Amino acid sequence: MTKEKTTLSAEDIAAAIQAVGHSTVFEITSRQIAKAITEKLKSQPVPTQEVARFAEVDLPSLPETAAPRLRPLVKFGRLHFSCPACRRRTVIESFYQGSPVSCPHCFTAIQAPAPKQQIPARNLGRTMEPLLRPQEFAQVVDARRILPWLWQRLPDVRQMVASAGVALLIATLTAIAPIATEWARQDHDISTHPPFEAQAAEPANDLTAEAEATVRAFLASATPGAMAGLVTDVMETSPRMKDWYQHHPVAGLGKAELGTATHGFYATLGSTVPVSEVPVTFPGCPTRNYVVEHRPEGARIAWEASVGYSPMNWPQILRQPAGSAPVRLRVLACREDYYNLDFASEKDFCCVRLHDTVSGELLGYAYTPRTKATENNLISQLPPPGSLSLQPVQVTVQTTPNSQRTNQVRLIGQVQGGWQEVNAADSPLAMADSKHQ
Fold first, then answer.
1. What are 185's strand-pairing partners?
2. Which of 30, 57, 158, 241 could form a disulfide with 224 if both were Cys (CB 3.0 to 4.6 A apart)?
3. Which domain holds residue 284?
4. Are residues 276 and 339 in the same domain?
5. What percentage of the chain exceeds 70 in pLDDT?
6. In this predicted model, what pLDDT tens digit does every residue of 213-270 receive, in sequence order?
7. Same domain, 410 and 431
8. Residue 268 CA, distance from chain mean position
9. Judging by beta carbons within 10 Å of its beta carbon (0-12, 13-18, 19+), is residue 404 exposed, middle or buried?
């Protein structure tokens, strides 16, 4: 195969320049030169013999001061360089490095640079060749195509991930479109779908009335033996009731005032037994919520959660040796800012003020190491420092060497709101009670 080099004389170029109305070479653009020479060569016959691919046309080169060259670099999956033909800043996909492409600006066939392999950008066909002999440049990649990897070359990892994400989004939208359309066509007439509150109103009223009647009967009982028939888990609860009412006389129960019962659907974890809470206020004592479980055999009071029973009282806990097993307590509590004696650093500890469940008298203070999780737990479960209202909670405490003298104990774990156990069988309070007995 022979290589034919088409040479244009200076007169031909001068005539082409004069045809477009310019006096000097450097005042015209590559496009104007292409247009002028194309018109000049229209009358010349096309060579019949096979010519070498990327044959060059001798054109005046641009001056070095025309535009500074950009050092090739790859940034964010894009190749930045200066076109060797038009000197304009060019940005194409990075996987075209070292490949023949057409400049997006002047459409010249060029070889894209490869910075890592230190391959510079090269002009393959000059400005005129792709216009005069397009059949010889059929393999030159058009770098301006959208999603060129679909039929040209495989993309890099970033482009593959982006394409996969777009495809997944389109597939997801296509899949849920019928579901969304069917949902939009549904009739949400309030007359055919009455509110849940309206459906549950009648049975809820029956349960709350039953709960209030059960609590009244319990408070009117004269002895713990009479009360035992109205509580849950009689065999385990009866001995605890007998011990409890030795220190809390039964006679005062008849003076309590009942509030309006509230109805819910929770008991222990995994249970479907509905539960009601009845506010009970004793003279000179904080209000307590009596928990009533509506079981198939009838309404029964969860006695331990109602009165705030703990397996050990506060004086017994303080008499324990330092480092003894932690004890679970039901108390009334709030946050506090009392830092003194063994726990004098506010920076290191969070303080909780503990009160008796029946009388509301101050018992002492519990301290736990200050962490973000601890602060969030106390804020969500307890009133702020100095608050007159106290919250019923369950805490696990452990004595220190000076607990009996300072009324200060360590708080182990988090504070659990309410006196109702989430799972009564496996609760820490029940296990601590069994160890104590």
1. none
2. 241
3. 200-307
4. no
5. 64
6. 888 888 888 677 778 888 888 888 888 888 888 877 665 566 778 877 777 655 555 6
7. yes
8. 30
9. middle
